[in-house]
Amino acid sequence: MTVGHVVLIGLMGSGKTTVGRKLASAIGRRFVDTDEEVERRTGRTVREIFESDGEPTFRLIEHQTLADTLATPEPLVVAAAGGAVLRDDSRALLVEPHRIVWLRAEPDLLIERVGRRRGHRPLIDDDPDLRLRQLWTERDPIYRSLAGTTVDVTGKSVEGVCSEIVEALA
Predict the structure, then answer these.
(1) In the prediction, which pLDDT does 81 show?
(2) What is the rounded distance in angstroms from the CA atom of residue 115 to the CA atom of residue 130?
(3) Domains in the chain: ranges and CATH
């Protein structure tokens, strides 16, 4: 298997949490979702942090959470928040010995999955369809540049995506 953590990156709705839980079970590792970890640490939801403190403060908390998670000596499967790749210092953490896996999904699939169920996703409040397309355009090159492995999730089951990742890690 691999040395370091397996870090799943991608936009909201790409399946990082669902795939991450299944992958962790399949390869015998503990799973950490950085959004969930931010909420656990702060006692507030992502939405609450955005609304009360703003995006820059959230991104700092997100960075600190990612840094602490990746500093864990126990090899983990980590679902990195979709925007965790926006800060230079966060991108600098996503290097060897970690395996960075981009769960790639086209905007139409992301819209289908999350566009109507905004929940804790304050970045898509105003116009989910338009905003998801914008985020995809902005972040696609960043994810591409970081990924050691890319898995297109379109039309694949969670099990199929996990199998593809396990094969790539071998």
Answers:
(1) 87
(2) 9
(3) 6-159 (3.40.50.300)
